Amino acid sequence: MMRSVAVIGKKCLHRHTVVLKGNPRTTLCWERSFAGASSDDCREKLSRKVLQDLKLDDAIGLFGDMVKSRPFPSIVEFNKLLSAVAKMKKFELVISLGEQMQTLGISHDLYTYSILINCFCRRSQLSLALALLGKMMKLGYEPDIVTLNSLLNGFCHGNRISDAVALVDQMVEMGYKPDTVTFTTLIHGLFLHNKASEAVALIDRMVQRGCQPDLVTYGAVVNGLCKRGDTDLALNLLNKMEAAKIEANVVIYSTVIDSLCKYRHEDDALNLFTEMENKGVRPNVITYSSLISCLCNYGRWSDASRLLSDMIERKINPNVVTFSALIDAFVKKGKLVEAEKLYDEMIKRSIDPDIFTYSSLINGFCMHDRLDEAKHMFELMISKDCFPNVVTYNTLIKGFCKAKRVEEGMELFREMSQRGLVGDTVTYTTLIQGLFQAGDVDMAQELFKEMESFGVSPDIWTYNILLDGLCDHRKLEKASVVFESMQKSKMELNIFTYNIMIEGMCKAGEVDNAWKLFTGLNGVKANVVTYNTMISGFCRKSLLQEANALFIEMKENRTLPDSCTYNTLIRAHLRDGDKTASAELIKAMRSCGFVGDASTFGLITNMLHDGRLDKSFLDMLS
DNA sequence: TTAGGGTTAG
Questions:
Q1: Is 50 exceeded by the pLDDT of residue A30?
Q2: How many helices (H) and strands (E) does chain A have?
Q3: What is the pLDDT of residues A462-506, one digit of tens each?
Q4: pLDDT per position as a tens digit, A403-430
Q5: Window A174-193, strand B contacts by Cβ < 7 Å
Q6: Is the CB of A165 under 7 A from strand B?
Q7: Distances (CA, A) of A314 to A91, A272, A310
Q8: Angle, nearest 10°, between helix axes A528-540 and A495-507?
Q9: What is the DSSP secondary structure assignment for residue A8, as one 8-state letter?
Q10: CB of A391 under 7 A from strand B?
Q11: Quick check: A481 and A447 in contact, CB under 8 A?
């Protein structure tokens, strides 16, 4: 590449002129063509307005007319058409039209070459783009900034980001003046290749070379940094901008504020909000919505409500996003009444709810087992031509499954397919879980098979639910087969996977196998549930020594026992007739602030009745 | 007549 670009030099400029002069054919033809109706037609068809909404078929037809008309229309007309086709992203077609032109003896000019180089780049055919650049330069055309920016874009989107950086340096050395397009293209490429620090360094390098980056360039870097959560670096850039007397605008401030808030620096976000006000930058509905939404999600309702009244007072009107964000936050915190009030308020303000609004409300109704209202909301949105997407369906399906109405969930699943929506991993996982809970083991397994055959990849949660369902329904053998295939696959098993299998084995009486699994957790850390399950497995087999040993081990491994750990052990020791050990455990449990659970109370009551225990035990428990 | 990516919120 560098060799090709290295030949770009001043001497080309001379030849450039010569070639343009030496290309009188198109000029002459064009002059003559004023008399020809067909060429006039073409020219009319190529007017800017027509080109804007030109259809692909018309473009091809037009090209056919153009190559048939004699004399040929000028190269400018061809360039306009090629450009229009390139805008339709039909890059291959542009290339083939270019080839046809050459076959017909219609010479390309600088613009044609630029368009074609761009097309090769967009098709990731870097070598062909470079070859064409070489050819073009041999003919004496000096690439201009647009040609080089296209090439730069090609490098950025191909895997040649270091060549992209080098190209910009070389452009500067050769006297080209990189423009905003050059920089935003390179910056975008750097972020695409995870080179955030190089993007920041680029800004410094530009300044060093006496090339002051503009607002757009800064904006691109700030945006890229914020998307990665590098808010410190973004704030540094804001300071740099200020030092360079480039005033950040509301978009840049909103970007940083949003990012600060999302990464849990909400107070810094609020401070920056004040700072932008002090600098005379007026926040807009987006600045407010983003802050309000984050604050609500963190439960900072009073701050959020202060901002809301603030924005209304300043006539910055909340829009559908503001309302939806609020509704969603209220719903997630279980405040459905408030969410419904907000919904009424937005209707009163003639703000149309959108798919987010409806989906949040449907979620709210589902969370409160108000399935009929959820369904009603779902039908309402459709009646308003706001069509549910896979997320909306998943929400409602989950609601029905949780309410043990898996049949209706399945019905929705079929309905979404009819609407042309494809279920995703969440859809299938939810339904598989619902089917297992409803005891429909066969259907659950069938759905799992369907999901695989439809190319929807099960994730670790899908597998965990499958394992759990199989174990719950006494299909440990089948679960073990699945588990082994998971171990062999690249999938990372989590502690839930192990907990499910350990529990399944213990419940099936296979404590030895469960213990084997427990001692062979592949780099996964046991949690309190893992210990509880194993301890309970030992207790079930009256292996109290093992259970006690594990209880000690879990404390040594800094896994805090919970109410379940204590209750399991207490019951086991009571059944074993060891009153002393039980009494000690009860004391220890109480000192941790836990109490006896229903099973423990039940057992003690029974033992009181048949005289195995005296009343002091009951007093100890409560 | 040629190029980039947008500009931010649920």
A1: no
A2: 38, 0
A3: 999 999 999 999 999 999 999 999 999 999 999 999 999 999 999
A4: 999 999 999 999 999 999 999 999 999 9
A5: 179-182, 184-185, 188
A6: no
A7: 49, 19, 6
A8: 10
A9: -
A10: no
A11: no
